Amino acid sequence: MHVLxxxxxxxxxxxxxxxxxxxWFVIGLWHAWSxxxxxxxxxxxxxxxxxxxxxxxxxxxxxxLPTRRFWGRLGIACAILAPSTFSAMYxxxxxxxxxxxxxxxxxxxxxGGVLTVLWALxxxxxxxxxxxxxxxxxxxxxxxxxxAGVLVWHWSLSRIDFxxxxxxxxxxxVAIIVVSVVSLITFVKVAFAGAGRLDRGALHILSAxxxxxxxxxxxxxxxxxxxxxxxxxxxxxxxxxxxFLAARRQRRRAGVRPVxxxxxxxxxxxxxxxIALLYVAVLQVEIPQSGQEAWMAIAATAVTVLVVLRQxxxxxxxxxxxxxxxxxxxxxxxxxxxxxxxxxxxxxxxTGELAARLESGEPFVVALLDLDDFKVVNDRYGHNxxxxxxxxxxxxxxxxxxxxxxxxRLGGDEFTLLLPxxxxxxxxxxxxxxxxxxxxxxxxxxxxxxxxxxxxxxxSRPDDTAGELxxxxxxxxxxxxxxxxxxxxxxxxxxxxxxxxxxRLAADLRQALVRDQLFLVYQxxxxxxxxxxxxxxxxxxxxxxxxxxxxPGVFVPLAERNGHIVELGRWVLENAVAxxxxxxxxxxxxxxxxxxxxxxxxxxxxxxxPAETAALLSGAGVAPSRITVEVTETAVLGTGTALQAVxxxxxxxxxxxxxxxxxxxxxxxxxxxxxVGWLKVDxxxxxxxxxxxxxxxxxxxxxxxxxxxxxxxxxxxxxxxEQAERLHxxxxxxxQGYHFAKPMHADDVELLIAAQEDFSPYLRM
Length: 765
Hints:
single chain, alpha/beta, five-stranded mixed β-sheet, 30 helices, 16 strands
């Protein structure tokens, strides 16, 4: 069953009125209308309908700002034509007799509308007009106006007896034709040169309307004896109908990126066409008269044709040469403006587009994307795999975005997006789908990976610069990383304050060592079930002179970010080794069997770190077997320098403990590749050990793995007796947590050891 489409009232009204007035004019060639005002009254209605359609298009939010402004200005031009039609109607019907005269008032009103259209066209952004362009445009205009004037005079005005036709004057006819021809040149120039995101089809419709309106001047000789008719009855409706249809096409094509067409012809045929028409007119005058003048006219025409053909041949060859140069320049431009690895926009091109967008005043959104733990991919699998991952990510970003969006690579694993015309809700919806697409498993260099991306988002402001926009997006991106990664975060001004606080805290941290603000505490590691102390883990603390105790969860990540972690880690290791030596001297066999020290990925990556550690132990007189180096999965994940450093430390006799097992990018193959002696099961698994939970299953399974691999398992974060008893039944022999003891000073560790020695007979029962 066919469903009738809803009647398009404005379009139907325009078509009916246009058809009516054209039919009125054609019938008037044979029939004298007694009430010509009927046809004239349709013209202002057509102007108002065209104005309405242009303003509708100007309010279309799917169009960019320059395009909307153009249609708004065209609507103003159509609105100006409404009083122009009333003025023309008064010229024709307001006197004692009907007249075809066009008054100065009407010509000025009509010219105002035309100038508004030309101004709107020339304000469009992409037709770059150099001084040479203006000179050529002026010459083309002069040639066409002069030729049109001569031809109109020869084939039209010279054949009219204006003395016997007081209703028409050559001035009025020529004025309209000249203005129309200049308008047509402008439209044709812009239509072929391109005009921003203005639809090319809409421009062609407008150009056709101007051409047809100008062509109505040739009708003037046939209606000089029909004062109830006027060329305006054809020209005005034609211009308003085409403006209406062009505006409607532009609105329906909103969101479609205009096709940039490149032609090989780089010269205008307008001057040659003008010469051809003038010579046709000259030959028409001279040949019937025969004689010497006729032969001279024929010879001059032939020579001119040969010269023109020769020049066109040279121009064609030059155009082909320019095409070759253009192709090379385009290739060079592509290399400059596009990233060589991924093929998307480069940093320089992106910042240039940012600056252009800011200058236009159109609001947009910037998003900065960074791959989480990309360095691990490069270190573990090599840079070829990392490059393949970047290419896959960039392809997904490019395919997922809208045609008007821009994606660029800033460098390394950082990408950025430019999203014009989106609200916060639109951006959130786009990023939700984008992250789902980008973070899906990907095959890179034959390896399946699940990338994670952190995104910082910010909206443009009127007083922004490209650098400020990227800075805000960068701040928001780091906030997304700090929140766990794999998400997007909008910039909030409070982030700047927090970043300033971090910067001040980082500066204070650099001075904390020399100002003796750092100190170590030690958390006991005990044997199950009786809780006898068997080792300690050294933990760093910071007593800030203004803020008091700064949590390690604040200053340790800060040290990681600013690179101070290497110096901080060296201080912790030196003091922990010195304390181990002191305990061994003072407590003898009662000293803790193991002193554990956390070592960061950056420390492991430092050249000579294993040799530095060996020299430190030798100088302090501490056996390597008494020191345990605790590393995280992320720190040694791969086959790079970090893993090699761990192997060298193990070869020296130090015990290697894998800390927080299960919380990073866990891989059981790491337990084979890395010389792990102790496996520390993270608190997040221990918390659920007393219930029927997946965590309990994992805890039970890990003890079997460690026994099979001849490792020791340490349960972290034990807080209740019930957890300790359940872990012991599962097979765990070592644990640490607040249930046994909180981190304490070295003196308190000695008191704890002394107390346990006093009760040691009871602990062995």
